[in-house]
Amino acid sequence: MSNSLRAVFLDHASLDLGDLDMQPLHQAFAELTLHAHTRPDQVAERLQGAQVAISNKVPLDAATFAACPELKLVLVAATGTNNIDLKAASAHGVTVCNCQGYGTPSVAQHTLMLLLALATRLPDYQRDIAAGRWQQASQFCLLDHPIVELEGKTLGMLGHGELGGAVARLAEAFGMRVLLGQLPGRPARADRLPLHELLPQVDALTLHCPLNEQTRNMIGAQELALMKPRAFLINTARGGLIDEQALADTLRRGHLGGAATDVLLQEPPKDGNPLLAADIPRLIITPHSAWGSQEARQRIVGQMVENAAGFFAGAPLRVVG
Length: 321
Fold this sequence. Notes:
The chain is α/β, with parallel strands linked by helices and 321 residues long. It has helices at residues 23-27, 43-46, 62-67, 86-91, 104-120, 122-130, 162-173, 195-198, 221-226, 244-252, 294-312, and strands at residues 6-9, 31-34, 52-55, 73-76, 95-97, 154-158, 177-180, 204-207, 232-235, 258-261, 283-285, 319-320. It has eleven helices and twelve strands. Strands 2-1-3-4-5-12 form a six-stranded mixed β-sheet. Strands 7-6-8-9-10-11 form a six-stranded parallel β-sheet, covered by helices on one side. Helix 5 crosses helix 7 (162-173). Belongs to the D-isomer specific 2-hydroxyacid dehydrogenase family.
């Protein structure tokens, strides 16, 4: 069956930077067409005659499935499926498979990198050197920004799945104590602390949970006020988990020791964002790059090949919907 199917990758440039081995994906189909990017108005036309659609972030809506009756399989080159109308796919008999756990090592190390950068005031010292302050110092070292040791500190965690567990192990290797928080909308557990009990205890808080109606803006002005004045906040999950205006205001008041985020509510932030203002101190922003190591992206290719092979064998893997 695999030798007879035509596949179209709608946005392969979002995955492959020219550093991936795409040959296994080519070999999985009779024909594989790669498009670097695809606009919404191009989707239906490009999928005509294809049985397999591959998408990282290109939306596949009900109109697309109605216009492309030959589609049998959607391979999502990511974990999130919010860009796929799963109900419409099911109604048209289309199987949707995603990728899972591919970025755990990459995101976990990025999370610790952000925490270490905040604790050591790395951006501040880099700016000082660029401004010539070390060169003009009166002694051999420059220690204008207080450095914090992670050993003995408490890390609060919201979300303790595969990724959260990996971050917890790395934090514990630095001598940190890990406390788990209760996510809104989830059943209470004895090993999870309610937010109002967790936040005052932690020296750093890291988020590893999905964005839904229960977790949207779960870290707002009230929650930030509960945190210690020198605590750190790290988000490598989803932008909507934090009230971005409240975080900007809190950092301007100097209440937190610092914050770092790899995600924003709108990505890319073409329409601006409260956290992009130039006057916000002790804030690190990275461009949703935590997942993007070469190794993680190659694992996505491998999982898509596995998903295709499972579908061809009548035993689909990682099915969503």
